[in-house]
Amino acid sequence: MNLVVVGAQWGDEGKGKMVDYFSEDADLVVRFSGGANAGHTIKVEDKTFAVHLIPAGIISPGKTVVLGNGMVIDPASMFEELAKIASQGIDWEGRVVVSDRAHLVLPGYKSEDRTIDEHRARPIGTTGRGIGVAYGKKASRDGVRVADLWDPVVWNALSKSDRDWLEPFKERLASMKVNLADFMMANQDKRILLEGAQGALLDLDHGTYPYVSSGISTSAGAAIGASIGPRRIDKCLGVLKAYQTRVGNGPFPTEMVDGNDVVLADKLRELGHEYGVTTGRPRRIGFLDLVALKYSGWVNSLDGFILSHLNLYDGFESLSVCTAYELDGEEIDYFPSNIADLERVKPVLQTLPGWEGKVADARTWEDMPGGAQKVVEFIEEFTGVPVHGYSVGPLRKETFMKEEPWTVS
Ligand code: IMO
Ligand code: MG
After folding, report:
1. Alpha-carbon gap, residue 99 to 291, rounded angstroms
2. Cβ distance 300 to 267 under 8 Å?
3. Among all ligands shown, which has an atom nearest to the Cα of 277?
């Protein structure tokens, strides 16, 4: 069976931690989208690991991880990351496989990415990792794939400096590359975790275009980016945070920007360590947006959510969630495609009561404070997607499932 894990919001929902948790029972972990723009933090006992390109499944001992064809790979970043986790005691040799159809991020792409963004009338605020340039070249058929390193026509057409830069990586990639379609066919009976990056609202098609990343970060991307085809996807889970964050520019209907809301945003930012893992930028904070979440549940065909960070509201008297938007004086219940509309909408907030007791201490659904259970039920009812599991703190042990992840209903 396979299980897709995606971000249900604008990224940074806690996917890395959940992928690490699910990896324990998986045979294979395949990352299907994005590149070094992602930033996943995984805490295991007293150690903290940060991965960007490498699937978060690498931290789980003995698991094979795959960088899928939906990714854009900067080989320098990749080997740097592997060296870093090796220095933290992770034995990765022989466990990392790379699709030979994945595209490469070449040295000039990063500066090109930054220059393009600086010259945009309204910059996106990219991570500067060359992601948009690599996917752009992929779409215009000017990209360089892993397999192309052994194609004399493509290789010889590269500049000498690109060839010199690639040469040492070529040797190392030779033993890691696979034809992923064949590899997945051979492994189809295994338990496969399909690891997403970014989030639905950063997806090239479904996100807040043009303020998005350039990969397919919704669950459909797992079929393409991991070479399995759409009918073989068994289950899709979306990770969401009990509030909303966004790094970089773009519309954010529920952003906490007024008076007391700013104070709340600052509090949540400190409690949740809401600073980018890749760029260190402070994340923008907002109220949980159920309009966007319902949309995300649909475009990802989610079987369930994993709810994280609800524990941050422990001790709060109440919390607010957005249940509709007001657009030019009219209430709307959908997530607009038009950016000007999304920038103009005002959130219609509903205040839900807080709770006594601590979500942070819960290890089962039954342990959850009654008020927190009511909030969960409100989210489920509104979105039509049940919450299957919870992350109530950064550690592996601060995770529990209400529904068994590795079964198909
Ligand atoms: P994870 O996997 C949050 C954002 C950037 C920028 C936009 C485009 O950690 O959830 P890009 O460099 O991809 O062209 O930037 O997308 N972005 C992310 N925001 N989490 C991420 O990944 C992100 N990856 C890209 O901040 O607004
Ligand atoms: Mg992140």
Report:
1. 36
2. no
3. 2
Mean pLDDT (the chain) is: 97
Q: Pick from 377, 372, 407, 371: which is nearest to 392 by CA?
A: 372
Which of the residues 40, 52, 309, 388 is marked catalytic? 40
Q: Which residue has the tokens 């400096």?
A: 161
Task: List the structure tokens of 342.
Answer: 């999304």
Cβ(134) to ligand 1 under 6 A?
no
> Is the predicted pLDDT of residue 134 greater than 90, yes or no?
yes
Distance 161 CA to ligand 2 centre (A): 32
- Residue 74 among the catalytic residues: no
pTM of the model as a whole: 0.97
Rounded to the nearest angstrom, the distance between the alpha carbon of 267 and the centre of ligand 2 is 19
Q: Which atom of ligand 1 is nearest to the CA of 278?
A: 9
12 is known as an active-site residue: yes
Question: Which ligand is nearest the CA of 213, by number?
Answer: 1
Q: Which two tokens stand for residue 272?
A: 């949740």
Q: Phi/psi at 345 (nearest 5 deg)?
A: -60, 145
Residue 73 and residue 175: Cα distance in Å, rounded?
A: 16
Say how many Å lie between the CA of residue 125 and the centre of ligand 1.
Answer: 9
What is the SS3 assignment for 295-306?
Answer: HHHHHCCCCEEE
The residues placing their C-beta within 5 Å of ligand 2, an ion, are 12, 39, 277
Homologous superfamily of 2-237: Adenylosuccinate Synthetase, subunit A, domain 1 (3.40.440.10)
CATH class of 242-291+309-401: alpha beta
pLDDT tens-digit map of 163-192: 999 999 999 999 999 999 999 999 999 999
- Cα–Cα nearest to 290, from 382, 218, 162: 382
CA distance 15 to 8: 10
Residue 399 pLDDT > 90? yes
Ligand with the closest atom to the CA of 42: 2
* Domain residue ranges in the chain: 2-237, 242-291+309-401
Task: Give the lowest-confidence range in 19-33, 265-279, 353-367.
Answer: 265-279
Q: Which amino acid is at 329?
A: G
Test site for ligand 1: of 122, 202, 212, 241, most ligand atoms within 8 A of the Cβ = 202
Say how far apart CA 236 and CA 301 lie, in whole Å.
Answer: 7
